[in-house]
Amino acid sequence: MSVVFVPKKQRGKAQINQEVIQRLLDENDQLVRCITEYLQKGRATECVQYQQILHRNIVYLGTIADASPDTNAVNE
């Protein structure tokens, strides 16, 4: 299970910072490499759990991005 996900009772108390985001990105990199390796070996069934974790991580990162103020926006 991903290191950034916490039990329900602790949700909302986690600090989201650049370190947490970088850990998620690093974990996603490892997941993609693992999935690719399994697929190349013809072991697609083993990929499912890693694909689910990768999906959850990507959705979580998207949620963080949507909730963050857009610091790159150009004033028109």
What would you note in describing this structure?
Pfam families: SSXT (PF05030). Belongs to the SS18 family. InterPro entries: SS18_N. This is LSM14A mRNA processing body assembly factor b. It is a single chain. This protein is an all-alpha fold. The chain has helices spanning 18-40, 44-67. The radius of gyration is 15 Å and the shape is elongated. The mean pLDDT is 81.
Structural class of the secondary elements? Answer: mainly alpha
Strand content: under 5%
Q: Please give the count of helices.
A: 2
Shape by Cα distribution? elongated
**SSE sequence, one letter per element:** HH
Residue windows where pLDDT falls under 50 for at least 5 positions: none
Nearest-angstrom radius of gyration?
A: 15 Å
Largest sheet: none
Number of strands: 0
Helix content estimate: 55-70%
Mean pLDDT equals 81
Terminal CA distance: 43 Å
For the structure shown, list the relevant keywords.
single chain, 76 residues, 2 helices, 0% strand, elongated
